[in-house]
Structure formats: structure tokens, C-alpha cells
Amino acid sequence: MNASARTPRIAALLDGPADIVLIDTQLDRNGALSSLGSQAHDFLMVTRVAASAITEAYACMKRLHYAHAIPQFRVLINHVQNPADVAIAFENLVGRCQPVSGCVARAGRLCVRGCARRSG
Length: 120
Fold this sequence. Notes:
Elements: H1 8-14, E1 44-48, H2 51-68, E2 73-80, H3 83-96, E3 104-111, E4 116-117
Parallel strand pairs: 1-2, 2-3
Antiparallel strand pairs: 3-4
Helix pairs in contact: 2-3
């Protein structure tokens, strides 16, 4: 969305004093982002360690990359019981994203107990 297409309310939010504006969004029926979501500078994909969730996250990132030219996604994996599973999940995502070089960056993990840890 270009600057002239912004509503005054969106412009005030995005051009205001906040360092971070977190927008929780989902794709519409056509796989597009909301007008507010499309203004994001960074995208955080939250998923679980389960194979089906990783596959779904990858499919979503691929659609968004091609539809909106999003160069990189940060990935946060939640409900983690075994930190080793996170490393495998990230390796799988990075492997799938090879055609889109550098599309995945580790954002971290959240363990089942609710403690936040940085993945590395």
C-alpha cells in the first residue's frame, strides 16, 4: 500500500512515536494481508514443532513471499518440549526455503512451561 492509500488512522499509528507496532493478522480468502498488515517491516510467523504446523507455516510464507515480495520471515516456535526439536524444525524450514535465499530467521522458542528462550 502506498502512502496515499493509507487512512489517517493507519498513518497516525505507523508514523507515530511507537518503536514497535505488533499486528496480529491472518490471510484473507485470497491469501492477501490486510492493508495494515501489508505495512509491516518485519514478519513473525508463530508455529508449533509439529510437522503439519511447520508445513502450513512454510506454505504461508511461500504464498506471502510471492504475493507481497516479503524477503524474510522471523519464526517463533511455541509449545516446545524439547529444544532439539526446534533446531530440526528450523533446519527443515531453511532447507525448504533454499529457492528463496535467506527467507527464514530464528526468532526463538517458547517452551511448554511458558519460559521464553532465544533459539540459537
